[in-house]
Amino acid sequence: MSRFITITLVVGHFLGPASGWSRQSVSGPMETQLMRAIDHTLRQEYWAAESVFRLLAEEYPNHPAANLYWAGMLQARAEDYSELPDRRRFDSLLIVADEKAQRLQSREETLAEGLYYAGSVLSYQSYVSSSTGEWFRAVTKGISAVSNLNKALARDSSLVGCYVGIGTYNYWKSRKTQFLSWLPFVRDDRVEGINQLRIGFRKGTYNRYLSASSLIIVLIDAGEYAEAVDVADAVLAKYPSNRHYLHWRAVACEQWGRLEEALTAYGRLLENLKADTNLHAFRRLQCNLKLADIHLRLGQMDRALEYARVTRDYAPNSFPEHLRETAAQRLAEGRKIEQHIRSLGAGSR
After folding, report:
1. pLDDT of 183 over the 80 cut
2. How far is it, in rounded angstroms, from Cα 228 to Cα 300?
3. Whole-angstrom Cα distance, residue 49 to residue 17?
4. Which residues have a Cβ under 8 Å from the Cβ of 90 and sit 6 or more positions away?
5. Which residues, 6 or more positions from 332, have their beta carbon under 8 angstroms from its beta carbon?
6. Spatial CB neighbours of 265, under 8 Å, sequence gap ≥ 6
7. Residue 47: pLDDT band with limits 50, 70, 90
8. Dist CA 123 CA 143 (whole Å)
9. Largest CA distance in the chain
10. Three-class SS of residue 289?
């Protein structure tokens, strides 16, 4: 397994647990407010989401949902803004969520729900461990997470949000051990994993917009590009400015070989990136270079040169420290594209 498994596992848990909200202890005003906070997050209104999570944590001090999804929102914001997450806040929210999940497990009537939230906490902890290079801890936490989710689902089949984490794990576990599939004791669970993710996406109403992330990424890896685009479009119909889904829709089109459609998708993403003043230039740089590369592959030299020239506007030390090495590589790629076009005698001078 790799860091990619833990990334998609944690994303799936943040974006896909809404079905668990149908539990009796998460209903009425609490459910409405949780939906509101997640809606703010998907609209990338992070400060509004945080205000709702903070209020929920105060009003429902015995339930782990607000603390768990608050941590998920912090991680989503960090990923969106290409920032380092606030580890102290992130870890403290997970610790509190886990304590509350353990208390839910102490009562038979809330045991399944407690297992569900405990599994979700373990998923986040697995991701954090992978991001710091603690691979053994990341894998063990991930396995424990899926164990809890399977136990929760066995006790309460209505917790269909569990399928997101389980399906993600099953797919990537088999994908990364594919070279051993000829052995009789090594199962290939990729198809099962995709079907489990489809259940997580299709069941319910609101949560179908939230559990799509892991499904799209898995479908792209499996070469099911048309379905990946369809799932992304379903989310973007409600959240047309969500950069996460704009990005993965563009990736699906590109890998599908529909380069003109990919240009449109990346162009839409770039306009969105330009419009948000809270974002620094790194993601715009990446998107410009992707557009330059696709135009180059299509033989559209002038347009490729136009996007590659963005490298002239930046120096590596203009980016945050944790991005400087990667930014330097991207800037070098842009210069290489520009030099290649000029070596062909193409492009405007």
Report:
1. no
2. 27
3. 16
4. 71, 74, 75, 124, 128
5. none
6. 246, 249, 250, 253
7. very high
8. 9
9. 74
10. helix
The two three-digit tokens of residue 170, written as one number: 């099953």
SS3 338: helix
Distance CA 60, CA 117 (A): 15
Amino acid identity of residue 176, one-letter, is K
Q: Which of 93-102, 105-114, 196-205 has the lowest mean pLDDT?
A: 196-205
Question: Which residue in the block uniquely carries the two structure tokens 């609209």?
Answer: 43
In this structure, what token pair is assigned to residue 274? 């330009």
Assess contact for 56 and 34: CB atoms under 8 A: yes
Mean pLDDT, the chain, rounded, equals 87
| pLDDT tens digits along 274-302 | 999 889 899 999 999 999 999 999 999 99
Residue burial 290-310, b: 16+ Cβ < 10 Å; e: rest:
bbbbbbbeeebbebbbbbbbb
Which letter does DSSP use for residue 22 in this model?
G
Per-domain boundaries in the chain: 1-156, 280-349
CATH of 1-156, one of 1.10.3470, 3.30.70, 1.10.8, 1.25.40: 1.25.40
Closest CA to 137 of 154, 149, 121, 125: 125
CA distance 142 to 163: 14
Distance CA 135, CA 6 (A): 10
Instruction: At 340, list the tokens.
Output: 């290649």
